[in-house]
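Structure, all two chains, one model.
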Amino acid sequence: MPDLRYERVRKVFHTRNVEVVALNDVSFVIFEGELFCLLGPSGCGKTTLLRCTAGLERLDGGRIYYGDTDFTAIPPFRRGIGMVFQNYALYPHMTVYDNVAYPLRIRKLPRGEIDRRVREIMELVGLPGVLRRNPSELSGGQQQRVALARALVYRPRLLLLDEPLANLDAKLKVYMRTEIRRIQKQAKVTTLYVTHDQQEAMAIADRLGVMEGGVVRQIGTPSEIYDDPANEFVAGFIGEMNFFPARIISWEGDKLVVAVGAAQKRKALRAGIKAFGDEVTVALRPEHLRIFPSTSGEGVFKGKVRVVQFLGKFVRYQVAISGDAGLVEVDMPAAVPGLQEGDEAVLDFDPRDMLVFYAGERVA
Amino acid sequence: MGGITPSARRLLHKDYTVYLVLGLGVLFVVVFLAYPLLRTVLIAFVPNGRELSFSNMSLVNFEKFLTSNLYRRSLINSFYISFAVVGLTMLIGVPMGYLVARVEIPGKHVLLSLSVVPLIMPAFLGAFAWIILLGRNGALRYVFERVGIDLPPIYGPFGVILAMTLMYYPFVFLLSEGAFETANPTLEESAAVMGARLPRILRTISLPLIIPSIAAGGILIFIRAISNFGVPAIVGGSTYVLPTLIYFQVNGFWNLHAAAAISLVSVLITGGALWLQRYIVSRREYETISASRSKLHIHRHPVAKALAIVFCWGVVLVSLFPQFTLIVMSFFKTWNGLWPRGFTLSHYLAIPKFLSGPIKNTLILATSSSLGAAMIGTLIAYVVQRRRPPGSAVLDYAVMLPFILPGIVVAVALLSSFSSGYLILRGTYWIMIISFVIRRTPYVFRSVSAGLTQLDPALEEASILSGATWFQTFRKVTLPLIFPTLASGTILTFATLLTELSTSILLYSAKTRTLSIAIYDSVNDGDYGLASALAVVLFFTVFAVTYAINRYTGKSMAASFRIG
């Protein structure tokens, strides 16, 4: 079972006299055949980890194992990795055919075999019939497919994709991410996919890792990451989130009661959480908040509606609540009757949707 | 894998060709550049005839700059002539640049193309042609005397400054023409809208904007002028400058120690100038290139046009006098007074005699040296750009160093290192080739470096990940992609080596005499007809090569000579 294992991988860059820790003892596993996404803001170390996997950067500590093989001891040209670069890195002085055949020629395969494999892989990426053209004559999406074909043609044990959709327009991005997943599943190749686009990552990944400051902050399936963020960073980075300061009122067994806004809310504590302080943060997604006119009762927060946006499937309210500078975002499935910009409103929510963080880490 | 230890396995896996190949390039630089230069610096502090040892060190060789009249005058002349050349090229080049860029001139493209012809001509040939025109019995001097103008003698500062100015002004001209052409028109338009008239706009907007790039170009001309050997050697007469003083010390007295000391002073001057140039360029913060495609105001007033035509065409035609003169001279026996006398083809018929000697030598040396420079320049550019090993910055500077070394200094360095001891190369083809390679590597290095910075490293990484070794990647991906840059750089190097004089003048032997040396000797022997015929052949060969390479790269002749 050749999984890809990272064990305490460390990388430090020295620029002038400043040391930047790009990867701070990163450890996790990518399972065989899986499409794993590394997601994070720029500078979080995701591309560095990808380049370390390829062998294009040397590690300053730790090991990368492919099954029982220590990848760290193998030079990049012997690792048997396919990689798609952000700008595709197609050779401008070769035709599409020669580009795709290049890795096979390096491996000195017989001509007939090369020809058969090139045609087969071009079929798989859905781009037969452009073999004699130059890469520059192809559209962005087509170049993307050629780059994929070149990375897959020698049946690598690992496929690495570095922001492969960054240079495509929005519509093509959505289409190509479906295509990449189809091709990856058909080729059955373990894949590491790096992106800063969370929608892309959520749509394409079997599992994903969210990185920040050289550390993997959470690993999980897209729904785990979205519904059950492990810390404040992941909660804020993935999707939209409202954060509110809160205070602990009581704490009995695994039941926690917090004072947030004008109300007290109860939630079950996560397993294994021991002692922590009084000041906590409560987080709620816009779709988990409810808004109604202040005339119809008391809520958790009081505020004034600043903006109402009709966004098709839902209506977004931006509300300025008292004692807080930021605007709270609330998504309702339909417009609330009698609630317009400038009106006083109250907000409420179901305590089961509430996420509680202490010092950045999830406690309930 | 049985008994093989993990570390041994790693050794087997690794690709060591890269270190082997790159090591060769580095070795060449160390043996033939770093060592000779170090040695030159050291012997500069040792009196002539003494052993090179620490106890013998003194400043005796440098004291001559204070005690010897010849040394002092040479130093002063070098500065005086170079500053004069910079000043005059500015006075001619900047207005001409403005006029060509901003006034409607008929035949603008022809004018631009013709203006680079002086740059293709080897310096010493230009000087030689001015001797024919302005020597004691020169045709132009005759004309001037008729209208009552008494010119100073051509041998001396006047001749040197004249020949250099007319040779180097195209640098300033092309630079300022380009700057005026690409300037942002809205800056001038806004000044005009605010009520400024043309002279004020020129003084307060247009000129200040291009001053940094013009200043940088001026310093490069200063470096070229102060390093030039050919012109002062031909028309300097008794006026010595630093390069001719070095030649005098080596050729007259075989005093390499004195030559080394003079070389050191000369290199310090050019080094300082280059530092100043870098400083100015780094502070050039104006963004004058306009993003908007709004059109520049072009002057169409008849008076402006007439002025521009007379000035620009006048300068270009005068700067072409040398070429014209050499062609005429090559067909005549003598040229004393207004008209040449005694039409003859004998000079050209004598050329076959040179085929087996100087012409063959020139071709062999230029070909092998440009290929050598191409190889070493490419390898080192690759190391510095892609590998960035510790110390690559040192390597970068080391390779670029000959760029500021006057050619004759390179010759002194090689002579002082390889005339005795373990490796004796004096008088061989090898020392000529090595000197040419050392001097021209910076050009290849720079153009390949530029090519590599534009080449996305991802292309090479993709190849490595596809399973290619370093060498396979270099051969199949890197080299084909930088080949156009490399080829044009190499062929231009070849063209410049055809006319090389300042290094070979000290290094040649009877066996390795080149065409340039043969022409130089013919001039000194007073055989002007033969010298002209050889010069014409040389010039047209260089012109043809340069023209071909510009066609190949798709650049205009003018574009490839823009500096700064």
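Chain B touches chain A at residues 6, 9-10, 13-15, 456, 458-459, 461-469, 472, 476-477, 480-481 (CB under 8 Å).
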